[in-house]
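Good morning,

Attaching, inline, the backbone tokens for the sequence recovery test we're adding to the shared suite. The designed sequence is right after.
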């Protein structure tokens, strides 16, 4: 591991593009180096004010380049991020690379406890877990294997899930430690999410009424995921999670219990094969192993939609079947009613859930399909939906 001045362009061949789009906070010309204190971000969990720094735009913040498996990941300590320049470097690195590591040592005891209760929960018989099926297409509570499939995929993912919303009220019966462990972890994790969100809002000028209210909106979900060990009867095309991009703003991933996570670095993506898993290109997929004491933060689709900046394009990733595995990503998002221009955050999510097959065909009304198509969504509909409403998919 080395300590280097961070330069996001080092991850990409086209450094000219980086230089042309960099530094939204200041002029490109050298200016004064006088610092003035401004009000700290609302509810800054790290307790220090952001410094409004007027400097020549030369990155000075240092970061660790740490190997997460096969991938070199730029890593930051959020407690070091205070000035506009530091925020800019953090955000431009995340934007250009698609993922960063953040030191998170305070989460470690909470992570271990959550994995303990996850093993106890998911090792129950299926009929007991199905008592926690909430009847909302698995958007909260337990979701059995076969419920999810990546956009454009016919084969379902091989995992069981338990989604937890901010206002969760229906917890597994007789497992008080399950709720206690998860709420304690989530409360500690939100300190990191809140700080990172403050930086994103300061950099992009995206407007929200209240950060706390935003993080407590229904789209912010903690997903407990259990990937069973592979079986000889499995479909050879089945993955723990097939190649996809996350639909939310940012995903916060602590260390899972085993390897299996792979990502397709941004420089290896093309318009023609963004989510294809052509075996002749298998070497382009890189194994990612999040180490102890860090969380991985990757970009989701909303980052680009919120900023109208395609450089925030979501990172493509998948989970291979390697053995029994547990993970608990947190999907941070914006409220369903947040206006993205042509449609809302909620409509964007609804479209993606339909594309994934998470919404039963009988629950999708013609009015819904018509509206989503009119606003430019449902670009990758499943065949059965096209067959049912062909009049809305003539150009698909």
């Amino acid at each position: 591991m080395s300590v280097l001045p961070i330069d996001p362009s080092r991850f990409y061949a086209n450094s000219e593009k980086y230089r042309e789009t960099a530094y939204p906070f200041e002029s490109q010309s050298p200016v004064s180096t006088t610092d003035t204190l401004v009000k700290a971000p609302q509810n800054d969990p790290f307790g220090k004010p952001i410094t409004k720094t007027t400097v020549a735009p030369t990155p000075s913040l240092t970061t660790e380049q740490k190997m997460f498996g096969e991938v070199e990941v730029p890593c930051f300590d959020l407690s070091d991020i205070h000035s506009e320049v530091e925020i800019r470097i953090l955000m431009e690195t995340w934007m250009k690379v698609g993922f960063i590591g953040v030191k998170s040592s305070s989460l470690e005891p909470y992570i271990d406890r959550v994995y303990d209760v996850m093993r106890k929960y998911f090792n129950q018989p299926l009929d007991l877990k199905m008592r926690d099926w909430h009847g909302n297409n698995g958007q909260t509570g337990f979701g059995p294997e076969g419920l999810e499939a990546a956009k454009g995929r016919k084969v379902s993912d091989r995992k069981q899930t338990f989604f937890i919303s901010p206002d969760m009220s229906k917890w597994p019966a007789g497992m008080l430690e399950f709720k206690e462990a998860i709420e304690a972890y989530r409360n500690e994790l939100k300190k990191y999410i809140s700080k990172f969100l403050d930086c994103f809002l300061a950099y992009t000028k995206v407007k929200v009424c209240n950060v706390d209210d935003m993080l407590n909106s229904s789209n912010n979900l903690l997903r407990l995921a259990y990937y069973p060990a592979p079986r000889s009867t499995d479909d050879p095309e089945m993955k723990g999670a097939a190649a996809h991009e996350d639909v939310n703003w940012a995903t916060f991933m602590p260390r899972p219990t085993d390897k299996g996570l792979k990502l397709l670095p941004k420089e290896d993506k093309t318009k023609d094969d963004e989510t294809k898993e052509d075996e002749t290109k298998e070497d382009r997929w890189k194994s990612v192993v999040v180490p102890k004491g860090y969380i991985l933060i990757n970009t989701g689709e909303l980052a680009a939609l919120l900023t109208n900046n395609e450089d925030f394009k979501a990172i493509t990733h998948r989970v291979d079947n390697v053995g029994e595995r547990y993970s608990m990503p947190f999907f941070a998002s914006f409220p369903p009613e947040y206006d993205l221009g042509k449609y809302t955050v909620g409509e964007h999510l609804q479209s993606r859930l339909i594309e994934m097959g998470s919404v039963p065909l009988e629950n999708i009304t013609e009015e819904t399909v018509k509206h989503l198509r009119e606003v430019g969504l449902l670009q990758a509909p499943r065949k059965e939906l096209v067959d049912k409403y062909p009049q809305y998919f003539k150009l698909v």
